[in-house]
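New to this. Please check this fold:
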Amino acid sequence: MDKENLITSFNHNITLSERKNIIITGVKKIDSFDKLEFNMETTLGNLVIKGSDLEIVKLDTYQGNITIKGKVNSLTYNDEKAKSKEEGFLGKIFKWI
C-alpha cells in the first residue's frame, strides 16, 4: 500500500486538551504553518488552526498524524480550495455567461 492510499484510509480525528495540545489524525498535507496559524489538508477537508505560540511537537507523515502545542483559539474547516478545483476552467467561463 503506498503512502497516499494509507493516509486516505485513516479516519480524521481531533483531540484538543485544555486548548494547549492538539492531536490531529488523517492529515494529508500541511500547506503552511507559523506561530499563529496552521493550514492543512485532511481526509475530510482543509483545516485552519489559529492561535498563539503554535509549534509542531510531533509529525508522522507516514500515518498522517500531527501534534501541535500552543494556545488554540479556533479550528475552522475551509472548503474553498476543494470548490475551486472542482469548478475547473469551463465552470469559470460559464459562470460569467
